[in-house]
User: What shape does this take?
Amino acid sequence: MRRMMTAAAFWALTAGGAAAACGGDFNAFVADLRAEAQARGHDAATVQRFFAGVRQDPAVLRADRRQGVFQLPFTEFARRLISANRLNRGQQMAERHDITFDRIERDYGISRGVLLAFWAFETDYGAVQGDFNTRDALVTLAHDCRRPEIFRPQIFAAIELFSRGDFDPNRTTGAWAGEIGMVQMLPEDILEHGTDGDGDGHVRLKTSAPDALLSGASMLAGLGWRADEPWLQEVTLPQGFDWAQSGLEVTKDGTDWDAIGLRPRHGEIADLPASVILPQGKGGPAFLAYPNFRVYFEWNQSFTYVLTAAYFAKRLEGAPVFDAGNPAPGLSGEEMKALQRKLKARGYDVGGVDGILGANTRAAVREMQGKLGLPVDAWPTRDLLDRL
Assistant: This one.
């Protein structure tokens, strides 16, 4: 799921006085949306046309609850998403759209592998953009009480796009969570960062690769991407490395990591703040994450997805296949949920009992490993679960 928590995300919870945030009768909820849209300045006719025929989509809710792929460990997840075909297609697309990528690198300082990786993972280079009605998906998720503060503002952004002639409430389709186009952007992000890359006077994220790529680059820049800086680098760790020095919570200058014996598998260590990340603990692959790596979390909050996208971007630019190492066996989805429940009972914020090893669960695991005298590498094992 792409970044959706914007500054306007909480507006719906306070605007319009007693606006219903979620739940209840669906028709009454839509009526409340209509009233709020008009209070925001949209004329009644536009609002009427936008919501005409809107329906609740149960398939959207099923998709929202079904995200088990993110329970996979990094090595397996990466092998599923990164194929020879995607690598070859990426090289072909880089050549085909060389002028656009040159412009992105010149204007934004974003290396072409970064956008290519997102393009590949989000829609297979535009081939699979999703067939959910975008308006219905957004209204359905805003009505659902799991994350209404995220989706409700997107409805009003879609109305604004509709008023400009850039959104068809009955025909615009995309992903189940309301993202549109080749690199899957939400309506608020399209309003802010949509870019006419091909010069036809329109922003067509579904059909124009230059529009989609430049819009994605603008969004990354807006999220804080630091121009012409690296984002990720695979490294080998020295003997006797202190595992407690790993994790995004620990940052050192690249020269300090070099001084203690970290060695890059490709290129040179940059003189920038960086963190050592071990997606599968001390026995698995090791990476050095630079400031730009953290920007990925503004696009997608899954640690596994973020790391895989960042690594694939490097592969597209010539980095070697990562050294998978020999990590300790991880936990199954149900075991991870059991671990999360145990951590939650001890007062840790694990971000929800979902069986996914996200950033919050990793932080809790690190702290508990330290308390129990285990290697502090943020990789939960059966031994940790048993001790709890």
Notes: The longest helix spans residues 148-163. The beta strands are 132-133, 173-174, 232-236, 252-253, 263-264, 273-277, 287-289.
